[in-house]
Write a structure and sequence with these properties.
Helix 2 packs across helix 3. About 45% of the residues are buried. The two termini are about 25 Å apart. The protein has 2 domains: about 120 residues, D-amino Acid Aminotransferase, Chain A, domain 1, CATH 3.30.470.10; about 160 residues, D-amino Acid Aminotransferase, Chain A, domain 2. With about 300 residues, it is α+β, with helices and mostly antiparallel strands. Strands 8, 9, 10, 11, 12, 13, 14, 15 and 16 form a 9-stranded mixed sheet that branches. Strands 1, 2, 3, 4, 5, 6, 7 and 17 form an 8-stranded antiparallel sheet that branches.
């Protein structure tokens, strides 16, 4: 991770190295936090954040799902992001808002712990590598199951949930794979460690519905819109492992992964990225970089740089 000059923390810009928390923070001990992954892209009209307001809405919704009320409104969080990106002056970057219970009591219930909120930004290229976007990745069905909807709210992008993802992707990496795909306890396809999964068969696009305990991804939602706009039929329904093995095309979506083709699952070859995957990937990348007017409303442009207090 490349350090940048500032991090927005609890209402103000602080130097990167000064954005620290106490070792007794509740979120450190119990995973009691929520976060977002957002990208800011370089566009012909300057830096623009992709669906920033939607991400901040989901951040607050995630908080409510774990009984955490954020002390900032969506509008304040959007403004804080603009302030940070303007101060850091990056043409393109990754943005990480996070809210967590801070230092107070250290029992399991956070009864007297403040809610801390921070936003980071730093340069970050392709999550799985440029070659992954071009040629696709190899995935493994994980032995770890996706956490169920009655185990923890799957619609919350909560920090503690990602231990599930960490175990799955470490297992996949140890086996020589690029990414993991988790199944539900019922044996249905869930999602990747940080991505939603799509399969193409006979020209139709399939993706697990929300009953599969998946995160309702913002990139997923964008891709569903793009696919239908391109004239493809999309069906949200349960998928099983063999649906992936027998697919004509497979791909994953996520803020970090963007639209990444899958070329093999459990060493069963799907092959080079197919025409539907390519069409969606191309349109998505054109949309996020401001080259498609149809999706201009998804881009929230960063105001021009202004002086940083104390500079």
């Amino acid at each position: 991770m490349e350090a940048t000059p500032y991090i927005w923390m609890n209402g103000e810009l602080v130097d990167w190295d000064d954005a620290t928390v106490h070792v007794g923070a509740h979120g450190l001990h119990y995973g009691s936090g929520v976060f977002e992954g957002i990208r800011c892209y370089e566009t012909p009209s300057g830096p623009a954040v992709f669906r920033l307001t939607d991400h901040m809405r989901r951040l607050r919704t995630s908080g409510r799902l774990i009984h955490m009320e954020l002390p900032y409104s969506v509008e304040e969080l959007v403004s804080a992001t603009h302030e940070l990106l303007s101060a850091n002056g990056l043409p393109a970057c990754y943005v990480r808002p996070i809210a967590f219970y801070g230092y107070g009591t250290l029992g399991v219930p956070p009864r007297h712990n403040p809610v801390c909120v921070a936003i980071m930004s730093w340069p970050w290229g392709t999550y799985l590598g440029a070659e992954a976007l071009e040629r696709g990745i190899h995935c493994k069905i994980s032995s770890w199951r996706r956490v169920g909807p009655n185990t923890i709210p799957h619609a919350a992008k909560a920090t503690g949930v990602y231990l599930n993802s960490m175990l799955a992707v470490l297992e996949a990496s140890a086996g020589g794979y690029d990414e993991a795909i988790l199944l539900t306890e019922d044996g249905n396809v869930g999602d990747g460690s940080g991505e939603n999964v799509f399969a193409v068969k006979d020209g139709v696009i399939f993706t697990p519905d929300l009953s599969a305990s998946i995160l309702p991804g913002i990139t997923r939602d964008s891709v569903l819109t793009i696919a239908r706009d391109l004239g493809y039929e999309v069906r949200e329904r349960p998928l099983i492992r063999t649906d992936l093995y027998m697919a004509d095309e497979l791909f994953m979506t996520g803020t970090a992964a963007e639209v990444t083709p899958i070329r093999a699952v459990d060493d069963r070859e799907v092959g080079d990225p197919g025409p539907i995957t390519r069409a969606i990937q191309t349109t998505y990348l054109e949309a996020v970089t401001g080259r498609v007017d149809r999706y201009a409303e998804w881009l929230e442009h960063v105001p021009r740089s202004s002086p940083v207090p104390g500079s």
